[in-house]
Amino acid sequence: MTSEKEKLEKLAMRVDEILTVLNSISEEVQGLSKSIKIVLGVNVSRTSPLTSKIAPVDSNKSISNIKKNFPKDLEKLLDFKEEAQYVIIKPKQFLGSENFAKIASITRELGGEYISAGRDSHFRVSKK
Fold first, then answer.
1. Which of 18, 62, 64, 125 has the greatest number of CB atoms lying within 10 Å of its CB?
2. In whole angstroms, what is the distance from residue 128 CA to residue 115 CA?
3. Residue 16: CB atoms within 10 Å
4. What span, in angstroms and rounded, lies between the C-alpha atoms of 112 and 88?
């Protein structure tokens, strides 16, 4: 049973790594799309279908300010923890690819990033 669990943990870590790569590719494709639209003179102010409209956050990025950017259905899947330089956002459960992508997108728009670290994987947003 232990080896089965270890295999599943390794698989989950690999899936997290793949999602990180796919999100990076998605960002690159979105940037390319914006560049093409600029060259064509098309309005590029629309948000991606994966992202929600991000509320303006002042320079004091507190947990409450960051939480405001997540829809309630996503917020209830996450634990928020304030540290000295970052707000750490950890999933309470397996997110699935769709929820992961939405959370990663919102986090990036807030200037944050995803940290892939196995069981300690998390999103983080700088408070500065």
1. 125
2. 18
3. 17
4. 10
Please, which pLDDT band fits residue 34 given cuts at 50, 70 and 90?
low
How many Cα atoms sit within 13 Å of 66 on the Cβ side?
A: 28
Helical axes 96-109 vs 2-40, angle rounded to 10°: 50
Contact 33, 47 (CB under 8 A): no
Quickly count: other Cβ atoms within 10 Å of residue 7's Cβ.
10
Per-residue tokens: 27 = 């960002």
pTM: 0.56
| Beta-bridge mates of residue 80 | 89
d(CA 53, CA 15): 27
Number of neighbouring beta carbons within 10 Å of residue 55? 10
Q: Is 86 helix (H, G, I), strand (E, B) or coil?
A: strand
